[in-house]
Amino acid sequence: MMAVYAHAISFVVLCGFTLLYGVVMDHTSITLNHTCSENSSDHSANCSYRGLTSVPRNLSHDLRSFYVSHNNISMLLDKSFVNYKQLKTLDASYNSIYLIENETFHALLLLKVLRLHRNSINVLPISLLEKNVHLSSIILHHNILEGIPHIVGNNLQTTQFAEDGENACGCKNMSRFDLSFNKVGSLEQGDFVALRNCSFDRFNLNNNDIKSLSRAVFTDLQAVHLLINYISLAEFYADSFLGNKAIVKVTIICSGIRSIVPMNTSEMPRDLFPGITKLYLSRNELITIPKYALDGFEKLQLLDISSNRLSSLQNESFCGLKSLVNLDLSANKIKSLPRGSFACAEKLEIINLSRNDIAVLDPRWFDGSHSLSTLAFYQSNIHEIKTIPWNSTNLQTLNLISNKLNSVTKNTFVGLKNLKFLDISMNNPLEISVDAFEETISLKKIIMQNLSKFTMTGSFRNMHQLVFLDMSYLRSRLEITSCGQFSHTSALRTLNLSKTNIKAEDLVQFKSNRSLFSGLVSLYTLKLQHNLFDDFHQVANAFTTLWNLRELDLFECRIQQINSGIFGNLTSLTYLSLAANHIRIIPEKAFQDLQNLRVLKLNSNSITVIEKQLFSRTHSLQNLYLQDNQISTIEPFTLIPQSLKVLIIAKNPFTCTCQLAWFSKWLDKGNTKIDLRNETRCSSTSFKLLRDQTIWSFHPKDYCGVNIYLIVGVSLAIVTVFSLSVLAYQKRWWLNHKLFLLKLAIIGYEEIIENQGPEDYEYQLNLMFREEDEWWTNDCMKPFLQGRMPHLEHVVFGDNDLHPGSFYLNAIYDVIENSYKTVLLLNNESVEDTWFMTKLRMAVEHMNDTKLEKIILIFLEDIDDDHLPYLVRLLLSRNKPYLLWVDDDEDGQELFWAKFEKSMRTNREMNNVIPV
Questions:
Q1: Which PANTHER family does the annotation name (predicted)?
Q2: What is the maximum alpha-carbon separation in the chain?
Q3: Going by C-beta distance under 8 Å and a sequence separation of 6 or more, which residues neighbour residue 449?
Q4: Is the dihedral of CA 339, 343, 349, 351 positive or negative?
Q5: Which of 144, 157, 447, 500 would staple 478 via disulfide (CB 3.0–4.6 Å)?
């Protein structure tokens, strides 16, 4: 309080010293000719940079914003703003103000923002702003204030706010108070009493001369975020925040803190404990954290002690932090930790130990941390992880980027059954064993970028939950031992093999014709940039199994030629990049099956010709990139998708002649956006006046007259069409007959499909087999139905599921008649079985009665024609409803199940009419 009285006395002396000067200047300012600019639309006046020594008073009285910054004003007097009672924003920064009279702002009842920074203010009158009840922001940084000013009043009994502003505290709407870069030397209890009825979002005391914080000094400060950075605070006393529930976030960084002094919580009631949830103490000089260092901070959720000098911790350093979730210890000098270092903080979920000097990582450090879910050890010089079981069973994310790990084996992550994300990028040299991930069965995301070498030996084959895998930027060639690397990795959505130096021959095993990507039935994104695919056209089956693929990136892979069918099965593809390769010609049917393709990048190749029908079936194409190629012309009648929104054709040597006239007209009339227009120019082979001009400078009507060859050709075509039409009319019945026969021979007849679906039948599937063949049903058919056709709930498996109490033949016929599909398993033994052939005959008779192809024959082995019964041969010759099972061939089995799924979709009606 003595500081307050001292400031008041100084203020009185200054007032007396400048009284006469103020009267003279106040009178002068009324008649002063100013050069301020006023804006009537937003009711503002700009008087900045005018060399003013006082505030102009002859401006419009309805100003809302007033700027008098960057002048030579030294005093603000009681009458400086009496004419501007509508002001909401006042900026008087960057002046030489050292004196502000007590009632300077009392007339500004609507004032919200007051900027007084970059002046020479060392004292402010008490109650300077007590009338400004709408004030939300006051900026006082870079002055010479030595204490917390009581500018909103010193009436400690004020708890109510008057609506008219009379006798009201001027801070009820305050959100920001900036006192940084002043001369505040100390903070004492009572400094904030005058502000206790305020509510600040941010209270900034950065860069002052504060050297200590007394006990409960912030009790009366109602601020959400308190900033006290860049001060000289040797010790951090935890009891400085006693009694304050308002401060949620505190930052005290770069303040030279060497130690934390805990408070004695046993001698104080819990209702005085701080309400802080986030505490930032980074970039100080802490060497250790004592036991129960922050005991009493029961609501603290985030603690940042990064970039200090910590070399050790104690088991009880974080005891008392009942709500702590996130702990940042990065950029310290920690080499080792005691066992169970963080067990006291029972809710701790995230620990960041990056950029320390941890040579050997010991899983026992985290014993007792049952809530721990994320651990980060980025760039921590780790050479080894002790092969000790992890007790942090809830750990889900482990970051080991940029260390020096030598090996990862099956024992490295024992105990981490719930680990979902693992990043071991940039660890060299790193050896990864075949069974390295067997203990982490829940892994969903693995990143292993920038390794020196890696050999795929089936490490990911049985990772059923893996969704994301990144092995990009390998420093040597990725070695692949076989093409069965992802046999059962069916959940994988993203695979990144960019810059792994693989070749086209690695994508397909030529002997078995099996793709490296077999088994990746859920893959959405495949990145293969920067690889060595010189022989890309020879791996036609590389992407055959990826029918769910959405994004394929082949950027800069040295591709020279594209096979017509290489993208044939990618019907779900929406993004395809072939940019920065060596492609010269693209086959007309290269993209014919990509009906969902939206983005196609063909830029930076050597393409010379765009085939007319190249985009005939890419009906969804929206973005097409063709820049930086060797295209000289676009042939007339070249199909351009109507869906196209963005087209880039810059940096191509277009020959602007009459052959390109149609394309020039299309560019002018089309709704497609053409990017890089200024770089889309005519080449030296164009008309002379158009050389090196933009293609939009080419107006065909100025250069291209009537084409006599076109007129003659069109006329001849009309005569020919008319003659053929007359001849066709005379022979119309003969032609109709021949065309009908041709249609039947080529495309057959239109299939008629049963209206009823599987749900309309009592049994959706009926399997008939010999008892000796039940193994195939249990080992193959049942797992398939459970995994890929779970909707089939009513299935009859052999004689065991027949209706009890009925005669055998009656029960069989009842199941056949009420089944959507009947499947019979055939082999050499079954065709010799009388009862099995009776079942087959009953099924065929039912099929003839219903005229629906409801039978599927599955051959478990090849049967010689001489050994095949006549009934089976007759059935096969008419409808061919059979499938052949192949053992030890995963691709063949995948095709078998795909055909089976297709056969289960509908029942076609039989057609017994044979055309003559």
A1: AMPHOTERIN-INDUCED PROTEIN, SURFACE ANTIGEN BSPA-LIKE
A2: 129
A3: 425, 426, 470, 471, 472, 473
A4: negative
A5: 500
